[in-house]
Amino acid sequence: LSFKKKWKPPVASVLEFGGVKIAKDDVVRDDPTNNVPDSIFGKLGMQLHRRNQHPLGILKNAIYEYFDTTYPNKFDKFDDLCPIVTVKQNFDDVLVPADHVSRSYNDTYYIDSQTVLRCHTSAHQAELLKGHNHFLVTGDVYRRDSIDSTHYPVFHQMEGVSVFSPDDWQASGLDATDYAANDLKKCLEGLARHLFGAVEMRWVDTYFPFTNPSFELEIYFKEKWLEVLGCGVTEQEILKRSGKLNNVAWAFGLGLERLAMVLFDIPDIRLFWSTDERFTSQFSDGQLGVKFKPFSKYPPCYKDMSFWISESFTENNLCEIVRAVAGDLVEEVTLIDNFTNKKGMTSHCYRIAYRSMERSLTDEEINDLQWNVREQVQSKLNVVLR
Ligand code: FA5
Ligand code: MG
Predict the structure, then answer these.
(1) pTM of the entire structure?
(2) Cβ(160) to ligand 1 under 6 A?
(3) pLDDT, position 14
(4) List of residues 6+ apart from 20 with CB closer than 8 A
């Protein structure tokens, strides 16, 4: 798959983050390693989380309110840091191993070999730790990922970090790590109650390179457990590198869309990008409890596609092609059949669900999309259509 692309000037050619101006032409050089499609690049600078009438902005403000009432003036807040970061910031500084999958071109958008679109707000942890002990960082993050109602290649996270000193844990009788883990869980359970009132939730043990122990919080939503955040006790090495030798800290990264979906009853993650007034008019500044009323649901249309894969095939590459062709008209891509024949050839059958959130699609339109997807898959993915 060749990532080389011709750069077309975008509508907004200058981006501004925290008062720093960046010309888009300066960031996207015609670099052979650049795998950022125009549709993704166009999302830079939109900053949905800074719009007070948008569900993500309303949610961000409600989380701020929780921290401000629970811990007055304690947390410094950042929501305007540039999403274009170095590989060092995004991965090395948070101890992501050199061979970790998240570093691959299959998972992360690279502008060039040393520059990425941040894949998490943890990219800012190390630098902020140098001057701050308690902070929240909200921002748009970017990932090559699968396609369904809870995954989108651009989404928003809020990072929280809190550093403690020996006085804090010594009085508790707990060791430093247990103290931080307890405080973290108490803080996030309190946040969930502040946002949702009563809600069914559970903690799941997990792994992150930058925390130990590590946890995920899941919330029961639409008959499924939905992962809404990752968190844990910060690895000592990260604190040490920022000069905090005698401290312990916790950190979390919330998925804002996931929380907002539960909070506002938003059924599909694509809706956050909708400019349809039937969506946008349902939300207003400071109004947290309002449930979204779906405008009539338009029918989906399913198209199946089978092909023999090659070794280099990945589902993320397929999804990237489908998104490039169909944009937000694609709702879900699912592997529905997978077998290997006697000659050792493997066949995959994917079902693509097309559905607009805003109108009925015509047969002709869908056939066009599917035809284009087939053509692009054939020419770019090194697979053989069946
Ligand atoms: C992280 O990104 C870690 N940086 C979180 C963290 C921070 C852990 C600090 C420990 C300490 P993860 O990849 O699980 O973890 O993403 C965090 C959350 O983002 C998920 O729980 C989920 O709510 C949300 N999320 C992940 N991928 C997507 C996606 N494609 N679309 C929408 N939301 C997503
Ligand atoms: Mg996760």
Answers:
(1) 0.92
(2) no
(3) 80
(4) 82
